[in-house]
Amino acid sequence: MKILVFSVLAAALGLFGTGGARAEESAGSEKSAKKVVIIPIREQIAKPELYILRRGLKAAIEEKVDTIVLDMETPGGALDVTFEMLKALEKFPGRTVTYINREAISAGALISAGTDEIYFAPGGLIGAAAPVLLTGGEMDEIMRGKIVSYLKARVRSMSEGKGYRGQVISAMIDMDSEFRIGDTVIKEKGELLSLTAQEAVKLYGDPPQPLLGSGIEENLDALLDRLHGAGNYSVLRLEVTWSEKLAQYLTGLTPILLGIGMALLLIEFKTPGFGVFGVSGISLLAVVFMAQYVAGMSGHEPLLFFCLGLLLVAGELFFFPGLIVPAVIGVVLMVVSLVWSMADLWPSESIQFSSDVFIRPLINVIGGMMLALLLFAAFLRFLPKGSPLVALVLKAAVGGEPVAARALTEGGLTGSSLIGATGVAATALFPSGQVEIEGRRYEARSDAGFMEAGAPVKVTGLAEFGLIVEVVS
């Protein structure tokens, strides 16, 4: 099994490239038609939404798109991510539009203010953009004042030449100021401004102009007809990838995962050795950490399959030796990932099982594995018998030299003579390690899983790798 794994690893070198997420194009065939990209911003503002926006903007720039439309429905989110999204929007040279499909609260209002035009669904809402702590509590007065001042200045710079927009968004940020147009008080001091779709498009001033919104449209199709004329545009609707959906889901579970992970680590500190509580706690904290970055994994599925297979093989070799099943599944996943990585697949075409798709990559992988096996066999065949590599034996850090299973018969020892013998665990067993019996060390594995160093043991059987032992109660 180990030789087969090494063969697959050798075949994997240099095969994995990077992939990118793709969007799907729809509608519009005339070359003169305007190009539009619709980017969904439909969840809490966090890293996954930033990755979705960046991917959509890059696709729009590459395709020389005329207009991007943010399909907005968000309760708000992280302020630092909001600034990153506003910076990303500035890179797009064309027309930017926000369609508030339901609500743009807090950070959503700030992002909307960074686009050229804001349109609403009939029941749309926008507002309440005051900064708060991640816990939802109020900030220190001095810190809140600094952030509010900066946000208002940022909004003014984004809203120059856009009517009342700067004043409206500022009123959504700052509750300590009054907002009025002429004799009409839009927002009184001591409250934050929020607007319905009808309120946002209401006309004020002389000459009359809308308070914030450019209009109300029933749906996205109606909006695009208004922007470019019916049938005079093609649409690229950005589809959220599996990794972005997973990132959104994990981000929502972050407090729960973080709490459980830390609780498991605290339990681990109170228990002897290092076991399931520690592994589980570290794993959950790793999930919390990776949740912010998993959105960028779409397009790297072959590499993910390969890593999963590698983990299964490693688990069999180091934690469950002799179980075989995890290693077999792992090797299959690694081979499949290698073939997948070399297959010339396109998302818009059906998969054809031909020599140009899977057969040739499969032949390449099998050929590479066979070559690796031949080279390894030649290495063992022609290596001098006196070479240190042949006699290489693992030595414990605490001293002593372990005896492998095939060496048990040396010096008059037999397998039957050791069964029933007692000794101590020279190292911790996870479940494999070393035991000491009558002054000699042996490779061993505990049937009960983890065993601490120094524990009294009894030999219950033999395996290819060494002894099988259990704790003597």
Mind sketching the topology for me?
Blueprint: H1 2-12, E1 24-26, E2 34-41, H2 47-62, E3 67-74, H3 79-90, E4 95-105, H4 107-113, E5 117-120, E6 125-127, H5 141-158, H6 165-173, E7 179-181, E8 184-187, E9 194-196, H7 197-200, E10 203-204, E11 209-210, E12 215-216, H8 220-228, E13 233-237, H9 242-252, H10 254-269, H11 276-291, H12 301-318, H13 325-342, H14 355-382, E14 402-403, H15 415-418, E15 422-425, E16 432-437, E17 440-446, E18 456-463, E19 466-471
Parallel strand pairs: 2-3, 2-13, 3-4, 4-5, 4-6, 5-12, 14-17, 17-19
Antiparallel strand pairs: 1-13, 6-9, 7-8, 10-11, 15-16, 15-18, 16-17, 18-19
Quote the CATH topology of the largest domain: 2-enoyl-CoA Hydratase, Chain A, domain 1
What separation lies between the terminal Cα atoms? 35 Å
Q: Got a strand count?
A: 19
Q: Biggest sheet, open or closed, and with what strands and sense?
A: 9 strands, mixed
The assigned structural class equals: alpha/beta
Percent helix: 40-55%
Number of helices: 15
- Mean pLDDT across the residues is 75
Structure report:
The chain has 473 residues and is an alpha/beta fold. It folds into three domains: 2-13 and 243-378, no CATH class; 24-240, 2-enoyl-CoA Hydratase, Chain A, domain 1 (Alpha-Beta Complex), CATH 3.90.226.10; 402-471, OB fold (Dihydrolipoamide Acetyltransferase, E2P) (Beta Barrel), CATH 2.40.50.140. Helices cover 42% and strands 19% of the residues. It has 15 helices and 19 strands. It has helices spanning 2-12, 47-62, 79-90, 107-113, 141-158, 165-173, 197-200, 220-228, 242-252, 254-269, 276-291, 301-318, 325-342, 355-382, 415-418, and strands at 24-26, 34-41, 67-74, 95-105, 117-120, 125-127, 179-181, 184-187, 194-196, 203-204, 209-210, 215-216, 233-237, 402-403, 422-425, 432-437, 440-446, 456-463, 466-471. The strands form four sheets. Strands 1, 2, 3, 4, 5, 6, 9, 12 and 13 form a nine-stranded mixed beta sheet that branches. Helix 2 packs parallel to helix 3 (79-90).
